[in-house]
Amino acid sequence: MKLYAGCFLKMEASLPTPTILMLRPRSGGGQFVLSEEYIMEPHVAVSEYTDSYGNFCQRLIIPSGTFSIKTRTCVETIDEIDVDFSAELVPAEDIPEEILSFLLPSRYCQSDLLGHMALEIVEGYPQGYEQVEAIRAWIRKNIVYEYGTSDVSTSALDTARTRTGVCRDFSHLGISLCRSLNIPARMVVGYLYDLKPMDLHAWFEAYLGGRWYIFDATQEKPVGKRISIAYGRDAADVALATHFGLVNLLEMNVWANDTPQE
């Protein structure tokens, strides 16, 4: 389907502030970007580069005062995500070099400390896709989705202890549990059609049978109609805005619909 998505960000800075944004999706992985629009008020110079994970990154200097960015994109995306319970664990020695980093502990995903928990969750399940689905289902059942229970410092270890969080925390925990079982896993941020309440969303992917599969513990069943913006080891790699100075976010609006948004 064609999915029309975008966001509006209004910010305020007291001084000109160097910033890196990740707001542009790329084609590939079940999506094709048909059109894009990127509006800034006031207009400033922007340069772009591709980071080590293939994400499009925009470099700019936010001027002092009020500054806004509005992005719109139309993406041809899949209606349903792939599900394959026969997808097997890839032995560590056969994992491609560019994917090995997704097997290691990272800032928010302490997979080296969650091995016992992972083994309890997947006990009795065959190695591979069924184990990851068991992890996703366990998080869905046992972690309470609740705003205000976590912040930018919350890690997978914290979520395992408090049993509360939001999509970011659900993803970090799923990633950590997978990695502790030698299953490469990565974080994805983007848009999900008809998400309620609407916001930018996070989920995780696991590398099985030689490819990546989507898992989203916030959803009751496999759901497609999503647009990926950025991939990384955890939230530290996929921040949609990184400011090298003090910037206040005054307003944020996100949409992902089957019709264009004005």
TrEMBL record:
InterPro entries: Papain-like_cys_pep_sf, Transglutaminase-like. Residues 159-219 form the Transglutaminase-like domain. Keywords: Hydrolase, Protease. The lineage of its organism: Bacteria, Pseudomonadati, Bacteroidota, Cytophagia, Cytophagales. This is Transglutaminase-like enzyme, putative cysteine protease. One of its GO terms (molecular function) is peptidase activity. SUPFAM superfamilies: Cysteine proteinases (SSF54001). It comes from Pseudarcicella hirudinis. Coiled coil: none annotated.
